[in-house]
Design the sequence.
């Protein structure tokens, strides 16, 4: 699943770079924003030793990339703070919210099993 999402992100980024008019600087800036928003939160979490589910990683990559593309298409947004910060922040949220829910569910099931009489 993660390889498929990486290939999908790359294909969409190439199509956007080819068909949207922009200067070289704007294209490079967009590429770094999209790559950072898509893969940055996952890389940082893995480097920190955080255990992540494949679904959470996919949602994070998709959210970061889609928001980076969407915000870059807005007028006068080439490189502004929202285009850089919002996709990365939302991708990070999407990465950890499902993981926290899964951990809470596992803890609840573990407590239930520990408290049940044998």
Sequence:
């Amino acid at each position: 699943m993660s390889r498929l999402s990486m290939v999908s992100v790359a294909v969409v980024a190439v199509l956007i770079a080819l068909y949207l008019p922009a200067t070289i600087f704007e294209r490079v800036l967009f590429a770094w924003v999209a790559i950072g928003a898509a893969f940055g939160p996952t890389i940082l979490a893995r480097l920190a030793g955080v255990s992540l589910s494949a679904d959470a990683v996919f949602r994070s990559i998709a959210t970061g990339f889609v928001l980076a593309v969407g915000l870059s298409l807005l007028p006068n947004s080439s490189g502004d703070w929202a285009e850089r910060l919002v996709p990365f922040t939302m991708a990070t949220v999407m990465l950890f919210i499902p993981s926290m829910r899964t951990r809470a569910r596992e803890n609840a099931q573990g407590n239930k099993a520990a408290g049940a009489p044998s």
The chain has four helices and no strands.
